[in-house]
Write a structure and sequence with these properties.
By secondary structure, this protein is α+β, with helices and mostly antiparallel strands. Helix content is 39%, strand content 19%. The protein has one domain. It has 5 helices and 6 strands. The chain has a 4-stranded antiparallel beta sheet with strand order 4-5-1-6, with helices on one face. A two-stranded antiparallel sheet has the order 2-3. Residues 1-148 form the Reverse transcriptase domain.
């Protein structure tokens, strides 16, 4: 068992790529095309105030924005599809909740698999925690693996 955490997901979501992904998703719906322009505006015109000055956020989505979790999930769904399909070693199981992943990967393939995940996109980087004594904390739950 291994858990992955995506380092600072919201501020590292690649906005332009995510807009393209959302555009492709919306093309397959009956929603008006104006929604694409709205999503583009919401994701590219985020400002924040720091020390009395306003700045345009140029990377990622704004933390605290109601759109941030939705956009991050849309991007990560696409990312994991790409990453898992091209992985040299596939995990036996893969469960993701926003920026946390619980997976079952053979111990001898963990380093190779993590290296692959971290090579898919430069801004999306994973940290790992491996099971110890058959236990691995994940989302305030302690899954136990009884072993062979």
């Amino acid at each position: 068992m291994i858990s992955f955490d995506i380092t600072s997901l919201f501020t590292n979501v690649p906005v332009d790529e995510t807009i393209s992904i959302i555009t492709n998703i919306l093309k397959d719906t009956d929603l008006p095309t104006g929604y694409i322009a709205c999503v583009n505006h919401c994701l590219t015109t985020g400002y924040f105030l720091w020390r009395g000055e306003y700045y345009l956020q140029v990377n990622g989505v704004a933390m605290g924005s109601p759109l941030a979790p939705v956009v991050a999930n849309i991007y990560m769904e696409w990312f994991e599809g790409q990453a898992l399909a091209s992985a040299p070693v596939r995990p036996r199981h893969w469960w993701r909740y926003v920026d946390d992943v619980f997976a079952i990967v053979n111990r001898e393939h963990v380093a190779e698999f993590v290296g692959h995940l971290n090579s898919v996109h430069g801004s999306i980087q994973f940290t790992t925690e491996e099971e110890r004594e058959g236990m691995l904390p994940f989302l305030d739950v302690l899954p136990l693996f009884p072993g062979p």
